[in-house]
Amino acid sequence: MKLRNAWELGVKELRGLIRDPVMLFLIVYSFSLSIYSSSKALPDALSNAAISVVDEDRSQLSGRIFDAFYSPYFVAPNQITTSEMDRRMDAGLDTFAIDIPPDFERDVLAGKVPAMQLNVDATRMSQAFTGNSYIQQIVTSEVSEYVAGHRGGDTLQVALALRARYNPNLDPIWFGAINNVVQSITMLSIVLTGAALIREKEHGTIEHLLVMPVTAAEIMLSKVWSMGLVVLLASALSIVFVVQGMLGVPVQGSVALFLAGAVLMLFAMTALGIFLATVAGSMPQFGLLMMLVIVPLQVLSGGMTPRESMPEVIRTIMLLAPTTHFITLSQAILFRGAGIEVVWPQFLALAAIGTGLFFLALDRFRKFLS
Question: CATH 3.40.1710.10: which residues of the chain?
Answer without folding.
Answer: 51-148
